[in-house]
């Protein structure tokens, strides 16, 4: 029994005022939905305000990134200690962090360890570029990234993995449900090799990459896909609520 999880990654969008308005617009609607875990991940500047709005709510809060050190001379960075008690989740290893900011598998692994130590739940992103996909390297890339992120991580660690093919993120070109399911099956088999079948079958793996309210059902109907990490569509209250409703309807009762 894997509870579906829909997480909205707002990326570098919304002012503080806009973030508050967006959460207010969908908070009550999300609260009425049972059978799916709901997470919103606004920019750092809005975390405290959104946390206040979501207090005593079933909708959880996530950060979009963090550094692995607890404190120090790291201008512009946010530490796990700063996030602990403020939010529950943190997105790590997103392709935009890997490809724009040069984050390596080793750095992602340090962040995962630091997040878990601080009591945060990492959403660990893996995925191949279009060039890697066309070269037939998808399995090698997602396997290497998954193993790298989880190096030294205990089987009991509370993690979520998000498969986000780089070529599908923000492009409007989503993977097909079957193709995403096949790659997520590869990721789950990697977890089997690392932790055994029971642990692997209990871990949730999302799909991310141009997911909308119109196409999410195609992914949710696949047996290996346990939800979605949603980008641009999560900035529209009605669309995000619809995706959570569909997740609860399709996966919430299994």
What's a quick, concise take on this entry?
This protein has 254 residues and is an alpha/beta fold.
Structure overview:
This protein is of the alpha/beta class. It has a single domain (5-251), classed as Alpha-Beta Barrel (TIM Barrel), CATH 3.20.20.70. 43% of the residues lie in helices and 14% in strands. It contains 11 helices and 8 strands. An 8-stranded parallel beta sheet has the order 7-6-5-4-3-2-1-8. Helix 2 links the parallel strand 2 and strand 3. The mean pLDDT is 96.
Estimate the strand proportion. Answer: 5-15%
Q: What is the level 1 CATH name?
A: Alpha Beta
Count of domain modules: 1
The gyration radius over C-alpha positions equals: 17 Å
Within the largest sheet, what's the order of strands? 7-6-5-4-3-2-1-8
CATH topology, anyone?
TIM Barrel
Task: State the main characteristics.
254 residues; alpha/beta; 8-stranded parallel β-sheet; 14% strand
Topology at a glance:
Elements lengths: L4 E5 L6 H16 L5 E5 L5 H7 L6 E4 L16 H4 L5 E4 L2 H6 L4 H13 L3 E6 L3 H5 L3 H12 L10 E4 L13 H19 L1 H6 L1 E4 L8 H5 L6 E4 L6 H15 L3
Parallel strand pairs: 1-2, 1-8, 2-3, 3-4, 4-5, 5-6, 6-7
